[in-house]
Design a protein that fits this description.
This protein is mainly α. It is 83% helix and 0% strand. The chain has one domain. The chain has 16 helices and no strands.
Length: 321
Amino acid sequence: MVTLVTLLSLVGGIFVFFLGLRAISTGMNGLFQQDLQRRLVAVPAAHRRWLIFLLSILFTALVQSSSAVTIIGVCLAEIGLINVAEALALTLGANVGTTITGQLISISLQASIPWFLGLGLLILLSALASKVRRQQLLYTGMALCGLGLLFSGFELLQYALKTGVVSFPVTQSLLDWARNGPWEGFWSGLVSTGLVQSSSLIIAATISLLNNGLITFQAAFYAMLGSNIGTAVTTLLAGFGGNKAAKSAALANLFFNIISVLMIIPFAGLLSALAQWSSPYPGRQLANAHTIFNLVTALALLPFCPILAGVLERIANLLET
């Protein structure tokens, strides 16, 4: 019976977590996507790359999906509203903005779940009865319900881990492999993120494992680095059906994520120590490491976007021949 409850908690937690992410993404996209595209196009040329980077961080933090924002960049590059270098800046901003998910779930917000769900449902019901700003109310209610579902899914995952998911043979084998060393943790993060198409879910699961003492901080840290590369699969699939600019923008997400990991590897010990110093709670430590890693590497790479854009356009030309 315990095994059945545990299995239902695991499957239900993953489903509810994804449902929450989808609801937040749909609600926030509905509220802000057209505004984002208009603002991206209207940004003055002098500081365009930096402003696109900042807008991308903000919008990704709102919609809780770096893939969605990066795909918007691919589409805008394909129709010529932004150039490849600007699409690269947007990708870097999305990488930073997506770390907000880890920050949110690393904080214990269990008590706020009923408030998010209750307020969201109330706004949804108000939207059905309202004839004024009905669409905005629907999207707002959906986003608030999504936050409640996101935190509910994470709590279910935590419960599943506490009640015996690690006793499953498949889970035990995967954890044993991830514990073998940093690179085993790295590949487990990369492959699992590529398969489930959600770095947010993998980061949430890793934080849960860390909070329950089922994985070392080193293994979790390298799984986070691997997840950063695995998340590029979605954008690659979206971009390779487009023109040269779309292919370049899609390749940028993969290349930047690989370069970011290569840049941080020599300083992995320093970043790990800084993250562990930043908080007494393991989950918060990993969330902080995730944010610091993406922010530092994004700021380091942003000035070189035009150079990298030229390289990627040449690669895209070769792929088209």
